[in-house]
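During the reporting period the student researcher (J.K.) took over the structure-prediction task from the postdoctoral fellow and processed the backlog of single-chain submissions. One of the processed entries is reproduced below for the supervisory committee.
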Amino acid sequence: MELCMGQFSSSGSVRVWDLSPAFRGVGYGQAIATWAVVTYYVSLMGLTVYYFFASFSTVLPWSECGDYSSNSCVDYKSNASEIAFKLGVPFNELTSSPEEYFQKEVLHIDPNGLANGMDPPEWRLTLCLLFSWIILYLVLAKGVQSSGKAAYFTALFPYLVLFIMLIRGATLPGALNGIIHFINPRWEKLLEPQVWYAAVSQSFFSLSVGFGSITMFSSYNSFRHNVYRDAAIISVTDTFTSLLAGFTTFAILGHLADLLGVDVDDVVKGGGTSLAFISYPDVLSRFAYVPQLFAVLFFLMLFTLGVGSASALTGCIITIICDEFPSFKKWIVTLVVSIVGFLLGLFYVTPQGQYVLDLIDHYGGGFIIFILVIFELGAVHWVYGVRNFCRDIEFMLGRKTGIYWKFCWAFLIPVLLAIIFIYMQIVAKPLKSGSYTFGTGANAFGICLAVFACLMVPIFFTVELLKRRDMASNLWEAVLETFRPTADWCPKDPILRREYQIFITKDKPELEGIDNPIPPVASTLSLASLQSKSSRENVIQYNSSV
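J.K. obtained the following structure tokens:
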């Protein structure tokens, strides 16, 4: 759907709401969520930079307990049972050397959480964060063309590393147990709404749905580009990549469980940072041959994946700014965005940074996107009308949209998303980061961030309404006009505009009912709009190559 919206209008995630200006705030709300995610995402890239350079050590630094370690630290040389007996503690209360290295040497994490405020940023992580933003700026400085070239490397190199890691991992003792654990279904989990909420949230992040980046990239396509093929390729590739990463990860974790003499469940301590910076490094340090090489490849892979994702999200922000202020030079906008992103990222490289990350991830990422995607679906298929939208797709691609897509877009997906989201808020438990429970102040901040992003919808509805108030005969007519598509909701090419006007004039949809409640755009098209040109027409020749 977002691919079609961007390609049809050749507009970014804000201008695309010429479809129904009343919902232009959805685009701005998505921009806030995208910016929140980018700021912490690049900080994670900084962590991969730190580990990448640490991997060149003669002995991997996380493979042994250091001066910073506690008495309960165990490394691959230690006899864990003997240490547990001496300390008089259960085996599961011991901490591995990679875990202590990550928390105490790298993060210098504050066990008190946010209770005592924020400490200054760690200088080594600050340098790694700066390096990450510099690389990101260089990738984005020349716009989609430069980031598109970089994508050849950032998209292909991780597959090479994943296959290397899979082959190596599959030959290790215990790998089969880990793989069986990965593919063994637990059907009872399908009855838990938390699982569906997590699955939907992961899909949003994995496919970048609801963040605006899909709309932004598709806006550079040629108008007749086969967007159905793109959607199929993206979905299949994403699923394949997830499975490949899953097999690789659990082969490694199965080997770790075999080394420790425990079940696979016991080494799967969690996803995210725990998996990338504790479990994986633990196994890599135990490789008999050149563990440094595998560590370098692994963290370089994570960094390139981060560059690919962060450039897409940051590029969306840059596109929004350049669309609103066409006179601004793109490289200057990119530079300012990078500097501001770096300054905001300093919060994540403090001893309390991981707590801030979890807080922003919960409220600024998934929470906001979940709400705005529901608004997006309702605006396109209930207000503009699923029949109108499918008519636009038919003009663009020369093929009709099947009843399956109409049903999913207009009813099934928005209803299920609303049910899952409401239920999860009813049964929500206090937000935690590890064993730390966020206080009232932290939750209040997160809620304010989410509310602020969602308030973009009524705020910009009011703005659009005021623009039309003086031109309408009464307030109600101004409200209706705010929901109607503008003259700019059409192909940007003048020839295609005229063809589109003829096409929709021949098409006479029913104007009543929830399927098509708003009159078609033909009623608002004018000669002036047909003669106007968007700044994006300057890249039409480039669009065809992209």
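The committee noted the following: The first strand starts at residue 73 and ends at 74.
J.K. will present the remaining backlog at the next meeting.
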